[in-house]
Amino acid sequence: MSADDAAALVPHGANVGMSGFTGSGHPKAVPTALARRIEQAHARGEQFRIGVWTGASTAPELDGALAKVNGVELRLPYQSDPITRERINAGAMEYVDIHLSHVAQFVWFGFLGHLDVALIEVTAILPDGSLVPSKSIGNNKTWLDQADRIIIEVNSGMSTALQGMHDVYYGTRLPPHRKPIPIIAPGDRIGETTFRCDPAKVIAVVETNAPDRDTSFAASDETSEAIAGHILEFLGHEVRRGRLPPELLPIQSGVGNVANAVMAGLENGPFSGLTAYTEVLQDGMLNLVRSGRMVLASATALSFSADATRQFDRDIENLKTKIVLRTQEISNHPEVIRRLGVIAMNGLIEADIYGNVNSTHIRGTTIMNGIGGSGDFARNAYLSIFMTPSTAKGGSISAIVPMVTHVDHTEHDVQIIVTEHGLADLRGLSPKQRAAVVIGNAAHPSFRPALKDYFDRACRLSPGKHTPHLLDEAFRMVNPLR
Ligand code: 0RQ
């Protein structure tokens, strides 16, 4: 049926589980049609808002369109859409920011309420009714299993050669009936290549032909190249010390330009036979796979620029032997991350001198995107690395502060902080030792005197000398101070 007819089947107040993860695999037509319907209802003075649950961020035609018409009552779990962000920060939309690996199990536990509709993009419907996923899996398996009704968008813009790349695990259970997740190497396949789908629940099938979001990256600059350089040097050092094998351990790489630059650095670095156990596979990692530097990559989503998408689509048969796409509860599963010994590399907004990290909030109150999978990986990784330019907003704000204004990753989950000025290796250090290394190695030189002055006075005047702080001035640096 048409997208408008399908959208007419979603009622006010429904919780809708939509496909989509970092701009890939989201439904392309029904959300926009739904936004039109919501706008018309509002114009008639009727209430119409829905709950939107996804894998992660989507695209303007989903998050943007629905936020613009004030159609979203509650959003979860990760978003990066400017209009959605504005609505959340204006207090006009509720937002629940949870670890990506928790979302599916929270739905199975019943923690998030009832899921009314699943709205899922797929590549194809097979004769037996099973569904070939598109370029992300996210929480789609759970949405299909848990929702009362299902709307399917079949995107003929997706290559049917995608069939076989996915691994949909059906072995999850509720406690106390859980069993070990049987992944012992990043490429292990433990599930099925398609989604099961009860045809009795399908209320609409809509045909589309549309590309994913074009997730382009800025060309590497001096800052991101310097950060990548410090990380490569550190990894080489760990290999020489016998703490990493020559082919390293499986890599997780977060979103954004710096993460992409680190992948570009690996392309020209000394390591080969690399693997990845990550959630998002971006352009830089695709290059590593295509060049043969990386032999295997496991993820839940492919998030590419338009150029990389063309390269991927051309080479898909070959890439299918090297890339596995999984459900996000498995791509981000703490048990598997811990077992494999993943090297986690994520971005941050600010870190404090003791190593607590804020990945989500500007000045403690304004949400940027969300924690995404960074916590799943940081807490359970073999090496937990956070990387950032040392300053923001043209050098006026220090990314290293006395005390973070919001905590996503506590000092216990953060081992290494890297900026363009250097790398702070915090492993085995006490809080005061950590502060000296963070200020000395990672802070921008122009902010070091202010940070050192704060730390020195805190060491003298703080009532407790374990994690010295001056609580009445800890946040003063958030307002530019030089
Ligand atoms: O805003 O573009 O308006 O200037 O924050 O900062 O430096 O472009 O960095 O794109 O790498 O994003 C933490 C947000 C970093 C990201 C975060 C402003 C800065 C800019 C973005 P402007 P950059 P990146 C896997 C793992 C959480 C989820 C995660 C993220 C904007 O990495 O969302 O890791 N992480 N998931 O100017 C004021 C500061 C600031 C600041 C930065 N201290 N004060 N503004 N900015 N620092 C993926 C998934 O989970 C799906």
Strand content: 15-25%
Are any ligands bound, and if so which? Answer: ligand 0RQ
Mean pLDDT: 96
Helical coverage, percent range = 25-40%
The coarse overall form would be: globular
Q: Find the structural class using helix and strand composition.
A: alpha/beta
- Main pleated-sheet profile: 8 strands, mixed
Beta-strand segment tally: 26
**Rg result:** 23 Å
**Poorly predicted parts:** none
Query: In DSSP terms, counting alpha (H) and pi (I) runs of 4 or more, how many helices?
Result: 16
Report how far apart the termini are: 61 Å
Account of the protein in words:
The chain has 482 residues and is α/β, with parallel strands linked by helices. It has 16 helices and 26 strands. The strands form 7 sheets. Strands 1, 2, 3, 4, 5, 6, 7 and 9 form an 8-stranded mixed beta sheet that branches. Helix 3 links the parallel strand 2 and strand 3. The radius of gyration is 23 Å and the shape is globular. The protein starts with a helix and ends in a 21-residue tail after the last helix. The mean pLDDT is 96. Ligand 0RQ binds next to helix 8 and strand 16. The site of ligand 0RQ has 29 residues, from helix 8 and strand 16. Keywords: Hydrolase. This is Acetyl-CoA hydrolase/transferase family protein. GO terms for molecular function: acetate CoA-transferase activity; acetyl-CoA hydrolase activity.
